[in-house]
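Q: How would the structure tokens look for this protein?
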Amino acid sequence: MALAHGLVRHPDGMPRCWWAGSDPLYLDYHDNEWGRPVTDDNRLFEKICLEGFQAGLSWLTILRKREAFRRAFAGFDIEHVAKFGARDINRLLKDAGIVRHRGKIESTINNARRAAALTREYGSLAAYVWGFEPVAKSRPRRLTKRALMRLGVTSESTALSKDLKRRGWTFVGPTTVYAFMQAMGLVNDHLPGCHAHAEVEAERSAFVRPAAPAT
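A: Here is the predicted structure in token form.
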């Protein structure tokens, strides 16, 4: 049976989204990580930071550098990174394992401080982020490759981007934010027919959304 446009059948017989390519690291990311709901604050912080570092590069480049990023940024522990100072910036600028962009390095430290403030306000970064989950009626009626290519910016990613910027975050434009939303499961953008689509949808259905504590 022919696959829908945007799907590719791999040698293991599994149909996948076209962008998964053939690199084992990318395939594992597609199959086991992308789109699956995340609530751990440090993982969320890592994802939004790496999406910012990715701008202008391939995501595979970032995946190949991710372990180096984790070592360099203390596992993206929010409270730890929030305490980074000038010495850490100089250390990071000399680290060939990461993307040595001063603006993005300084942004990561700044955003850690902003994330810590959000955690104090909402109880967790997750509770804040999941408050921007799109409602079903705002999603495409039929998710195709063509529809997906038009989703680089959405009203929800624009709203989240705007609110983050209002709170002092940087390198969080609406396109970067939508890529983050895709990666951490706020939406399921695996194409129907991709073997991961139904798995992710089942995880999202069973997932208990985090909420800010009642005031």
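The mean pLDDT is 96.

The radius of gyration is 18 Å.

Upvote if useful.
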